[in-house]
Amino acid sequence: MFSITRKFQKSQFLRNVAKLSSGKLLALAIAVVVTPIVSRLFSPSDYGVAALFIAASTIASSVLALAYERAAIFPKDDQKANRVVYLALAVSIVTALLILLLIAVCALIWPDIIEGSNFGSFLWLLPLGAFLMSLKGVGVALCVRRNDYTAIATADVGEAGITAATRIFWGLVIGSSTAGLLTGHLLGLLFATLACGFRSLTWLKRGGRPPGLGEMCSVAREFKDYPQFRAPAKIAFSAATKLPVIALGIMFPAEIVGFYAMGNRAAGRPLQAVSKSVSNVLLGKTMRLRHLEQPLGKSLLMVAAVLVLSGIPVFSVMLFFGEEVLTWVLGARWSSAGIYVQIMAPYLFIFWIGSFASTVFETLRLNKVRLKLNVGNLLVRVLVFVACSLAGLDIIKTLWAYVIASCFYQAIVYFIAARAVMSHDAALIQKNFAASNPVVGDELS
């Protein structure tokens, strides 16, 4: 026990994971406590419309900064990273305004498009939701660069708390409505943005004056692979992740979307949040290893093994007892959400162990590979839902088809990530050997 404690105290990686995970776990605790209350205050149909809005704004947010916020993690030089951050903020503002203009043009050409859609008048808030998500992403990326995981944890806890408090207050005072759910969502995002943004603003001020247009154009050219490959990959990933909500909204009534979204919130979202915290800390470590020209395989393998061992008991409960557990927690009218969780358990487990894959592609700057894989993933899912729709399958069979196809594709992604790490480490060992044995290295070359 004492040896484990000493190892934890000496390991910066473990301390950072614990710090970031503590915020995720506290946010998770808030969600666990609040979800049974929210499920009794809001109807499945209202929850379904809110889920559609959040899915659409999440996809839109992946477009806004053109992935330049992730490029801020890469440079060794803080001044260059500073310029990249300003570039990401400027691009986000311009893109958000363009999305708002597009909505306005569509409203003028097709006057019934807003009221006739599932979104209704909430469509006008979509650019705001996307912009807040984008700003939060910039702040989180900068915090990861500076190893400021306390700010990220604070943002996670505050976002969960404010979202929950707003929704409960609205539900008790006003009653069930999509407006109450979305107001809580937007206020929570605003707090998270400010929590990361204030610390990031201090860091930016220390970096001197904001860069001029020429300087931002220079870093834009240097990191052009991010908008060319990383941004489309991020859009494809976000679209693939949120596609079930969008597709189910097209194929089935809003109530079905509400059941799926609630099940994902109660079971999938907390696990994804913890997995994301591990991924962020792991990215910081592997990026440092890359700068020091050290192998990556050992660290990634250890994290993957821990995720597998810790995930087996949790997802086994989901698979066999999901309906009973969620019906007891959420109430009888949400029993369908428990059935959906049982179906989704294998996919959630595969996603849980995948933190290392996204870390590999980002650390090795394999943006082109990531783009191809994410686009392929999106196409596979689109084809699955189109085929299910044409075949007239019900919601249960549709979800099973989605889970099977997604698990198979994720296995391919993990294999490619593992091959990339092996190739990187082998090349690094050969390079170090050649450097320490120049005569042998010349013969090998």
- How would a crystallographer describe the biggest sheet? none
Question: How far do the termini sit from each other?
Answer: 49 Å
Helix and strand composition category: mainly alpha
Average per-residue pLDDT, rounded, comes to 81
Domain module count: 1
Fraction of residues in β-strands: under 5%
Alpha-carbon Rg, integer: 23 Å
Q: What is the helix fraction of residues, given as a range? A: over 70%
What does this structure look like?
This protein has 445 residues and is an all-alpha fold. It has one domain (7-429). The protein has helices at 2-10, 12-41, 44-64, 68-71, 78-109, 113-116, 126-145, 149-173, 178-206, 213-222, 225-251, 254-291, 297-330, 335-352, 355-363, 367-391, 395-436, 438-444. It is globular, with a radius of gyration of 23 Å.
Q: What's a concise summary of this model?
A:
With 445 residues, the chain is mostly helical. The protein is built from 18 helices and no strands.
Descriptive terms for the model:
single chain; 445 residues; mainly alpha; globular; disordered N terminus
